[in-house]
Structure formats: structure tokens, C-alpha cells
């Protein structure tokens, strides 16, 4: 009986597959080419045969890592709007960008691209405007300029430790060192639980190595979110932690790291609910209801995911920007010398201390950081937003509701009309009389309603770390370092192919 049933199912399956491949896919392709509401939008046609196949192909061939470079070429070929999937258009037009990402925008985040499992209950993944605004308003006060100033001592203390630690090392892996520095700042700043990553002998705590190993999984997360969600569910819920550790030590380390974040924030909540108020935390307002703002106290899942998000969102982004800055400052000694002269005006000795507000007065340092942001990009995957109800007229086309619009910061940052010789790292361009136009094309933190929550903290991290590091140390690349190490791929964040490894000598004057 079973055999018969199986035989019947099998015999039914083959024609079904044939019909799907020979009838459904070709007919759908014809529909997408000629009858779909986006049919007139230019773009490469073969990609439209199957979105899933195109996505899979890009992962298998490595094209995913180059996607943002390929998109730049597509815009040169097809113009400011390119249809890159059946229902998705990629844009390269600054006015449209500013409309889509403005405060009060009606274009929500696209669910497909915002289902990162470890942050699914966090601010980052909130699609609803009202819900996102309510949650953001509970966290934002802790990231205002004044709030960052109030806890600047945390940054100074960690930078002191970082600068002392590097003096003990012969060669320094700065890519990792910066991540350790930022991790210790964020964990202390956000929930008083310093991870002491800077005390690791080689700036290589196991969770950091796990982050490096697993970051490639971002490709699956942003192309096949359901598959990634399922895999995460298996690892997180179905398997006991020791089994996970046996199957994949990296995944085990990563999950232990996440557990530590969860524990830190839940401990704080417990103390807060017990009446303790002298707590350094960014989650205070999430521990309680706020009926006036219509906000309920955050659930356990929400707190845990927010705790992980601040590290996921704040660590690699800031650390990568610092890495890029030091790389170019070492590569171009003339620019470094100019910066050093500027720094000496406020840091008379190599070990002098300085406040962030003083560093804000140094135009060349500001210019170095802006040029660094132009090269480090923040997030390099396109930021996805849905066309709202009623559709939208964009660049001469009517896009129906739920069309996915994509914008890549990289493409704006490398616009040759706004930034002549765009691939040359040149801070001088930020010192021109009128920088309004170029500022409009610099958006490492995104813009508007969903602009990065941590941008003031990120600026403070960069100003203080760069100023004190460059003032104190004469830095050289190690012999085995090559420029290829700094080539990067698009795996949501720009991921460099190698590490920035250097030697450092204390300056004497
Ligand atoms: C150089 C450093 C940083 C860069 C370039 C950067 C960039 C960005 C970008 C581009 C987004 C928007 C993502 C999107 O819409 O998909 C974002 C969101 C976010 N960032 Fe940052 N970030 C940096 C540092 C930080 C830091 C230090 C924190 C906090 C500790 C932080 C917390 C967040 C949060 C919570 C969001 C989500 C906001 C929302 O969805 O409403 N970021 N960041």
C-alpha cells in the first residue's frame, strides 16, 4: 500500500516539476518582462527569470560580495533607476533618497531585509513607524551629545587602556584591537558590564574570532531570511548549548556571547525594579511602562535583542571606520603629518589628555573623519524601503505599493561628480568654502526617521581614539601587510579581506 502511494506521489511529482520548470517559470518570466507594473523600468533581464536563483547564484559565485560594485556599474549602464529583482528597484538619485529616508517618511523598512534573528525584537527590526518611534524615543536620550559627554570618562578610560596595551605588543592587529576597544566602551556604556576584551593578550577573545568566522552567514540572512531563521531556531531553541558547541565551536562562542548580553541587561532590570537608581544604562526607560508616551515596559525578548543590537550595530561599524582612518593616515604620511600638527595645538605632549569638545574645534581632524566615513560607508548592503499605499512616482515611473526600493550609500559616497577622483582618500575636500553639496552626499548613518541611534557616540569614539592614538604613536605597517588586506566585500557591513597589522613607536615630542 505504502509502496503504491509513494509510487503515485512520485509519478505525480515529476509532471509537477516539469510543469513548473517548462510552463510556470517561462510564463512568469514573460509576465515580468512585458506585463508587470515594473516592466518598463530598465535593468538586466535575465535576473528576472527567478529571484531565488539569482540570489543563490550570487552567493555561490561570490557575486554577493561584489554586489555593490556591480550595482554602481549597472547605474552607469541603465541610469538612476534599475530593476534588479522582479519587485525591487535600486536607485541612485539624491533627491529621491532624501524623500524616502526623511523624518516623517511613509516608506517603511522592508520586512524581507530586516529579519535578523538575533535582533528580531529590537529597534532595528521594527517596521511600524509608530512602534519604532516609541522605542527609539526611549533610547535616544542616552545617545544625545550631552549624554555622551556625561559618560565621556568611559571612553577616555578605555582608550587609555587601549593605548597602554598596544605599547606591550610587538605587532598589533588593529582591526581586532579597535573592535575590542569599541566592545568594551559599548558594553560599559550600555549595561555596565565591560567585556574586558582589551585585556585579551592578542585582542582575540574567542567570541570575536567567532564573529569573524560567522559574519559570512550574513549573506544567507539577507538573501534567504527564512532559511537563516530556521537554522538559528535549530541552534538556539532545539539544541542544548553543549551540543551546539560540539557541532560548531564558533556558533557556541557566539551564543555564549549573546547569553552574556542577555544576562547583563536582565540583571540590570532586576536591580532597577528593586529600586536601585544609580545605574549606568541606556535601557532604563525600557524597564518601565510610560503611559504618557503609550509605551509598555519592554519584554524579555525585546530587552535581550536590544542588548545584542547595540553591539551588533555599534562595534564593527565604528571599529571599521577607525581601521580605515589609520590605514590611510599611515599610507599617506603627509596627511598624517598635517593632522599631527593640528593635534599638537591641543595635545602638547604625546600622552596629554583632551576632551571631545576641544577636538571638535579642529577642522582637519573633522575632515579626516568625514573622508573616513565616506570610505567606510557604515552599512554597505542597500537600505530597503517599501513603497507605501497608493504607490509612488519615482524618476518617471509609477511604482506600485510594496515595490521594494533600495539605496546604497557606497554609490552616493563614490559619485564622481560630487567627489572628484572619488577613490582617492583626500580629507582636503571637506575643507572647501562651501561643503553643503558634499555633505548632502555623505550618509554613513543613514538619514531621517531611522537614522543611526548611536551616531554621537560613534563620532566621539572616532575623535578621541584617533586624536590620542596618532598623537602618541608613530605607526608603521608590518612587513607582511599589503593593501589587498583592506579590500572588502559586501556582507551587510564592509568586511575586509585581511587585517590591519602595524607596529607602533612612542613619540618623544
Ligand atoms: C561609525 C559607526 C556607525 C555607523 C556608520 C552606523 C550606521 C548605521 C546605519 C547606516 C544605520 C541604519 C541601518 C538601516 O536602516 O538599515 C544604523 C542604525 C542603527 N545604529 Fe548605527 N552606526 C554606527 C554606530 C552605532 C553605535 C555606536 C550604536 C550604538 C551603540 C548604533 C546603534 C544603532 C541602532 C540601534 C540602529 C537602528 C536604528 C533604527 O532602526 O531605528 N550605531 N547605524
Automatic annotation (TrEMBL):
It comes from Dactylellina haptotyla (strain CBS 200.50) (Nematode-trapping fungus). Pfam families: p450. Its cofactor is heme. Heme binds at residue 452. Belongs to the cytochrome P450 family. Keywords: Heme, Iron, Membrane, Metal-binding, Monooxygenase, Oxidoreductase, Transmembrane, Transmembrane helix. One of its GO terms (molecular function) is heme binding. This is Cytochrome P450. InterPro entries: Cyt_P450, Cyt_P450_CS, Cyt_P450_E_grp-I, Cyt_P450_sf, Cytochrome_P450_monoxygenase. Gene3D superfamilies: Cytochrome P450. The chain crosses the membrane at residues 12-31.
Amino acid at each position: 500500500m505504502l509502496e503504491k502511494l509513494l509510487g503515485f506521489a512520485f509519478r505525480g511529482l515529476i509532471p509537477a516539476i516539469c510543469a513548473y520548470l517548462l510552463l510556470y517559470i517561462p510564463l512568469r518570466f514573460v509576465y515580468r518582462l512585458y506585463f508587470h507594473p515594473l516592466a518598463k523600468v530598465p535593468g538586466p533581464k535575465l535576473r528576472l527569470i527567478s529571484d531565488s536563483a539569482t540570489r543563490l547564484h550570487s552567493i555561490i559565485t561570490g557575486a554577493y560580495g561584489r554586489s555593490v560594485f556591480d550595482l554602481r556599474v549597472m547605474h552607469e549602464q541603465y541610469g538612476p533607476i534599475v530593476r534588479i529583482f522582479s519587485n525591487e528597484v535600486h536607485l541612485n538619485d539624491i533627491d529621491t533618497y532624501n524623500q524616502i529616508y526623511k523624518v516623517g517618511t511613509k516608506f517603511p523598512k522592508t520586512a524581507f531585509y530586516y529579519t535578523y534573528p538575533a535582533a528580531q525584537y529590537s529597534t532595528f527590526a521594527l517596521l511600524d513607524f509608530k512602534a519604532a518611534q516609541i522605542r527609539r524615543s526611549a533610547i535616544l536620550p542616552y545617545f544625545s551629545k550631552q549624554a555622551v559627554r556625561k559618560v565621556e570618562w568611559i571612553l577616555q578610560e578605555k582608550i587609555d587602556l587601549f593605548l597602554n596595551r598596544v605599547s606591550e605588543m610587538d605587532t598589533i592587529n588593529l582591526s581586532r584591537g579597535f573592535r575590542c576597544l569599541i566592545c568594551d566602551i559599548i558594553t560599559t556604556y550600555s549595561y555596565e558590564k565591560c567585556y574586558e576584551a582589551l585585556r585579551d593578550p592578542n585582542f582575540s577573545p574567542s567570541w570575536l574570532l567567532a564573529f569573524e568566522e560567522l559574519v559570512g552567514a550574513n549573506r544567507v540572512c539577507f538573501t534567504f531570511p527564512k532559511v537563516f531563521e530556521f537554522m538559528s531556531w535549530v541552534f538556539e531553541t532545539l539544541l542544548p548549548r553543549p551540543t551546539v558547541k560540539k557541532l560548531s565551536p564558533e556558533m557556541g562562542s557566539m551564543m555564549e556571547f549573546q547569553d552574556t548580553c542577555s544576562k547583563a541587561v536582565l540583571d540590570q532590570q532586576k536591580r532597577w525594579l528593586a529600586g536601585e537608581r544609580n545605574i549606568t544604562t541606556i535601557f532604563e526607560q525600557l524597564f518601565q511602562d510610560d503611559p504618557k508616551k503609550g509605551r509598555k515596559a519592554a519584554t524579555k525578548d525585546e530587552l535581550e535583542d536590544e542588548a545584542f543590537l547595540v553591539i551588533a550595530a555599534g562595534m564593527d561599524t565604528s571599529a571599521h571606520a577607525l581601521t580605515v582612518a589609520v590605514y590611510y593616515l599611515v599610507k599617506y604620511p603627509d596627511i598624517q603629518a598635517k593632522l599631527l600638527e593640528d593635534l599638537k595645538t591641543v595635545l602638547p605632549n604625546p600622552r596629554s589628555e583632551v576632551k571631545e569638545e576641544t577636538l571638535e574645534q579642529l577642522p582637519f581632524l573633522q575632515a579626516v573623519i568625514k573622508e573616513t566615513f565616506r570610505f567606510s560607508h557604515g552599512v554597505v548592503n542597500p537600505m530597503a524601503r517599501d513603497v507605501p499605499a497608493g504607490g509612488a512616482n519615482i524618476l518617471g515611473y509609477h511604482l506600485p505599493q510594496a515595490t521594494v526600493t533600495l539605496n546604497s550609500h557606497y554609490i552616493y559616497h563614490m559619485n564622481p561628480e560630487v567627489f572628484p577622483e572619488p577613490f582617492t582618500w583626500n580629507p582636503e575636500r571637506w575643507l572647501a568654502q562651501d561643503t553643503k553639496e558634499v555633505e548632502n552626499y555623505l550618509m554613513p548613518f543613514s538619514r531621517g526617521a531611522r537614522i543611526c541611534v548611536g551616531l554621537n557616540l560613534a563620532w566621539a569614539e572616532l575623535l578621541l581614539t584617533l586624536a590620542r592614538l596618532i598623537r602618541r604613536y608613530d605607526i608603521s605597517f608590518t612587513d607582511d601587510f599589503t593593501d589587498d588586506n583592506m579590500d572588502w566585500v559586501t556582507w551587510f557591513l564592509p568586511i575586509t579581506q585581511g587585517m590591519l597589522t602595524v607596529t607602533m613607536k612612542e613619540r618623544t615630542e
